[in-house]
């Protein structure tokens, strides 16, 4: 029998290996994971040897479990403590918890349907639930967390009574929801078909930029107010022997809870933004030929983006001494945790 691989050793492209089918006495090409076709002439750009849909589904379920725990603790505090639910920050915190919890539920539903159904027949559902629904609630979370920081800045720096003008938080909440609903309406009408409609693609990019930059701007303004407050307080410490820097750090430490949410958002979003923007644009995020180490790192970096929306209690309640005092005093969960801590001490 003639070995045709010896006669035509270069018939396979892209390092494909020629093989012989002994029963048919024919040759074929054995391609690597990143090429396909009769002669391995076609490039596969996205990896297929790791089940990314399954990994995303498992991660979303784990995130939902943490979300249930954190949001339950937060809502219990806000509902049981009248002094918190009667403030603007309390209203924002309640809305943030509900919106964040809904976003996690939508993510799990989208991942579950995507895992158990055919991806091609799931495009419309993924558009409504995964793209439009989930992202809208995520951007709402960014805005409401920024509103919490801004309200705290007003109360700390300018002495605003947090429960005197609750209408401000109610009106702000309604306005934010109206803007969010109007921004996603074109996406729903055209079923996320922005790739084939340049005007819709521009509108989508504008609203994404508006929600992210708007939330960041509010954080910057709130931080500016707090720094002004620190400067004023430092001037009042003129009779103390501490240096200017030491006094500033002392005041910063006592109000560190205000900076926890923006720091967490920066840690969550900056790594993914850097990796995603610096990658080769001709290849997807999980490109073919990716190693298991790089795959795990990219999964972790991608997962970081959803962390702030599942740890509400750790972001807004735990860093605050006032909230934690009310938590241990007025909530059933706080009483249980306090009893456990006293038992081990």
UniProtKB/TrEMBL annotation:
Annotated transmembrane regions: 54-79, 91-109, 129-150, 170-188, 208-230, 251-275, 295-318
Keywords attached to this entry: Disulfide bond, EGF-like domain, Membrane, Transmembrane, Transmembrane helix
Domain annotation EGF-like: ranges: 1-41
Source species, domain of life: Eukaryota
Disulfide bonds listed in the record: 12-29, 31-40
Record's protein name: EGF-like domain-containing protein
Taxonomic source organism: Adineta steineri
Organism classification: Eukaryota, Metazoa, Spiralia, Gnathifera, Rotifera
